[in-house]
Write a structure and sequence with these properties.
The structure is a homodimer of 223-residue chains.
Chain A lengths: L2 E5 L4 H11 L4 E7 L5 H14 L5 E5 L2 H5 L28 H16 L1 E5 L14 H14 L7 E3 L7 H10 L22 H13 L14
Parallel strand pairs in A: 1-2, 1-4, 2-3, 4-5
Chain lengths: 223, 223
Amino acid sequence: MSLAIVLVSGGLDSCVTAAIAARRGPLAFLHLRYRQRTEKREFAAFSALADHFQVETRLVVDVDYMRQIGGSSLVDTTHPIPEDDATADLPTTYVPFRNANLLGVAVAWAEVINATDIYLGAHEAESHYPDCRREFFAAYERMVAAGTGPQTQVRIQTPLIDWDKAAIVRCGLALSAPLHLTWSCYQREDLACGRCESCRMRLAGFRRAGADDPLPYASIPRS
Amino acid sequence: MSLAIVLVSGGLDSCVTAAIAARRGPLAFLHLRYRQRTEKREFAAFSALADHFQVETRLVVDVDYMRQIGGSSLVDTTHPIPEDDATADLPTTYVPFRNANLLGVAVAWAEVINATDIYLGAHEAESHYPDCRREFFAAYERMVAAGTGPQTQVRIQTPLIDWDKAAIVRCGLALSAPLHLTWSCYQREDLACGRCESCRMRLAGFRRAGADDPLPYASIPRS
């Protein structure tokens, strides 16, 4: 069975994606550090997930240039993380062209380790980010075919693309994915803040799925 | 006039590309270090070219992960640089998916500084690299349109795409491009070796253009 690379940030979505990919065959895990605020906590979650899934082929790379380039509240600490609902066309948490950059690293690694599939947990249903859309991933896959060697065949797999957070939680529970090992908060590393966009979407997903989130929260807003 | 980013490695091709782009409007220069063997010499050439073209908006980023990923004699010092003519389908100097990774950084930066065009000196005529083909750049541009915000319009400009080295040298001389400030050798940083693939292609280009290469060489093979 051919090797699949999973992009693992350490969050809920990448955990469920890894659980889906693990049913298919052997895995390699890729984690990128781009000096986001919660980098250490996310890396700890990545390592715990890799141990859980018994993945030995791991690559952790620094893409500090994302901080140099700036333009996002996730990496630019002079911009506050928003705690209200997104209203702008493009949220301030958007990191410019992030998924294309992450996939670029993954495809280069795929060429070297002969992986045939790259899994990532993007979903367009609840996202305002242009690089989370199905049409973006389809265009990316065509670009890879045009830009790699004749022996390389890489498919971009986004099994969560049409799901909302409740569906992701339900699938994770059904597959016994280790959701307690994940981290989603954009702001804090000790307790999840419960207030940032990522915490609120995660909490709403568990609530709609009728399940309890195993993570500890500093505060949980009323629904 | 809108801003254009030029990918400037410091070599002959990027110098001539910059000279072409400079006729169009204001420029920003992007240079990537990926721990290739001649990184210091290439950075010196980049800086000299940026000074020559009076470009103040510069970004220099480290993409060390290319060395971590390996797979190329340019970044993996356990692989020798070949000195004979390329015969394999894919040369050992091929860095996996390099142009896609470089363009990913350029597009992220373009979103932040509102650049509308990205110039790079790729050409498919004499290249065996799959990510130097016209169809790759066309696919890349479509992927960018699908994956960036609605306010972003980025065109990938490859003015040298159909040219051989002789045509590039002729154009550089016609535009008074500062070819003496460039560096092309894959192996050495003091004198160009004259023997690696890059030196031999450059020397052949000058010879066919009927011009002298202003760089100092350790040895120049008979034509």
